[in-house]
Amino acid sequence: MRNFRFVFAIMLVIALSAPALAEIRPGVFSVSPFVGGFWFEGNQDLKHRPVYGLRLGYDFTKNWGAEAVFDYIDTKYKTTDTNIYNYRVEGLYHFMPYGKLVPFLAVGAGGMTINYRDDTANKTRAIFDYGAGLKYFFTDWLARLVGKSTAAELLLTGKTITADEALQIGLVNKVFAQNKLMEECEAFAGEIANKSQVAVKLILNALNKGLETDVYTGLFIEMLSASLCFSSEDCKEGLAALLDKKKPS
Question: What is the rounded distance in angstroms from the CA atom of residue 49 to the CA atom of residue 238?
Answer without folding.
Answer: 61
